[in-house]
């Protein structure tokens, strides 16, 4: 009997710690222009930070270490990670592709943050989310305070299209890359979505000279931090160097051994760089 009571008491003692960990974030859906956008919120600060995932990505697949760890480094920030329309848990609708896809995401992101009562916010955009972030900062200048661009460029070059084409067969992906997406979408829909993404890149190359947002980049006034993995085989150095040369007062940093998802591989270094940049005057 004594052992049972001690066991029960032990469970009660550890319960608050479990509850604190479980409820350190809030996940909900917000209706934005008729679309139910899935978001994850953490932190309690007055300032705002939006995390924008990459191709097919969601808040959890692309920014889990940031959701879990950044609030401690940024106590004056409310951190919001979203699933863009047609991605993750922001389905329906199906993802709508076309040359305006990133512009549509940028407008939706600003509308989301405005609806949340946080019309002024900073951005961390990774990969495809980085393109959306560039467009948001260059279009909605009064809304975006600071911009952090990770593994993304203002335009596409043929070698990048070739690199993505080489990844078209998802059966050749490592399990760590493939399985989270299969869990999120189901194996069949994941294959469809990924092929739609690669086809979209071809469309940009053929119909828009690979241009995502050169015009918007020229208009960015927000302080900007550009981050690149030096061993990124998907994003070439040239488009990211373009950002460094065309955004006023942009800072540039490379992870020497970083690949495309360096923010997941070098979590502590990445989070510290982000925090230092956002907290600086």
Automatic annotation (TrEMBL):
Q: Cross-referenced Pfam families, in alphabetical order?
A: Abhydrolase_6
Q: Does the keyword Transferase apply?
A: no
**Classification via SUPFAM superfamilies:** alpha/beta-Hydrolases
The AB hydrolase-1 domain extends over: 49-272
Q: Which UniProt keywords apply?
A: Hydrolase
Q: Which InterPro entries match?
A: AB_hydrolase_1, AB_hydrolase_fold
Superkingdom is: Eukaryota
Q: Which GO terms describe its molecular function?
A: serine hydrolase activity
Name-wise, this protein is: Valacyclovir hydrolase
Which gene is annotated as encoding this protein in its UniProt record? 101900556
């Amino acid at each position: 009997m004594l052992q049972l009571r001690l066991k029960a008491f032990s469970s009660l003692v550890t319960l608050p710690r479990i509850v604190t960990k479980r409820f350190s974030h809030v996940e909900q859906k917000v209706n934005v222009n008729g679309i139910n956008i899935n978001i994850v919120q953490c932190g309690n600060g007055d300032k705002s930070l939006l995390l924008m995932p990459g191709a097919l990505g969601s808040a959890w697949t692309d920014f889990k270490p940031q959701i879990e760890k950044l609030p401690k480094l940024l106590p004056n920030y409310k951190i919001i990670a979203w699933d863009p329309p047609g991605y993750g848990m922001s389905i329906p609708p199906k993802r709508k592709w076309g040359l305006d896809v990133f512009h549509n995401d940028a407008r939706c992101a600003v509308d989301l943050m405005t609806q949340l009562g946080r019309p002024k916010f900073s951005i961390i955009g990774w990969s495809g989310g980085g393109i959306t972030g560039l467009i948001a900062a260059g279009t909605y200048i009064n809304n975006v305070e600071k911009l952090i661009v990770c593994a993304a460029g203002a335009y596409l070059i043929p070698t990048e299209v070739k690199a993505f084409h080489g990844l078209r067969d998802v059966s050749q992906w490592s399990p760590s890359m493939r399985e989270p997406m299969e869990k999120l979408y189901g194996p069949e829909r994941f294959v469809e979505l990924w092929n739609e993404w690669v086809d979209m890149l071809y469309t940009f190359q053929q119909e828009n000279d690979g241009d995502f947002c050169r015009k918007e980049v020229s208009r960015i006034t927000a302080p900007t931090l550009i981050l690149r993995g030096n061993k990124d085989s998907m994003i070439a150095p040239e488009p990211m160097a373009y950002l460094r040369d065309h955004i006023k007062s942009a800072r540039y940093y490379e992870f020497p051994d970083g690949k495309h998802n360096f923010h997941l591989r070098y979590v502590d270094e990445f989070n510290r760089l982000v925090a230092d940049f956002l907290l600086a005057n």
